[in-house]
Amino acid sequence: MHRVIIVAFLICTAVSGASAQSNTEQSTPSAPTLKDRIPAPKRSVYSALRSATDWNNPFLIAKEDGVEIRKQGDDYAAPVVSIEEAIRFLERLPKSAWPYGLVVGVEGQSVCCRYSDGEARFHANREALLSRLKKAGIVVSLWPSG
Questions:
Q1: In the predicted structure, residue 16 carries a pLDDT above the cut 80
Q2: CA separation for the pair 112, 119 (Å, rounded)
Q3: Alpha carbons within 13 A on the beta-carbon side of 104
Q4: In this structure, which of 30, 41, 43, 81 has its CB flanked by the most CB atoms within 10 Å?
Q5: 143: part of which helix (H) or strand (E)?
């Protein structure tokens, strides 16, 4: 009988510990998404722009070896990163980096290609980038290659 009470006590302790842990996990708020933090795009504000250097939102250039990510259109010292890193970079930008709302400018690289399969790599990167942006709820303003 004494063993039954000890086993029952251990089971109750284990169950209540698991229950408390799951409640803690459920109550932990996740970081707000870009769609939660940044307002919808204001097309009327940026539709008249004709030069990427005048673009004030993030601007991405799809390349055969990644994505050049500019905080603004005229950020010529921008790094080339993976698509995943580009999305994480965008998610960390403050609201002030999005004056047009949740929209990015995207263009393709203007000079091709460093690799023998560079054109195929470029097209694959561009499609993957556009897909990830759409999945993140980010509107894309496509620009012709410079």
A1: no
A2: 7
A3: 27
A4: 41
A5: none
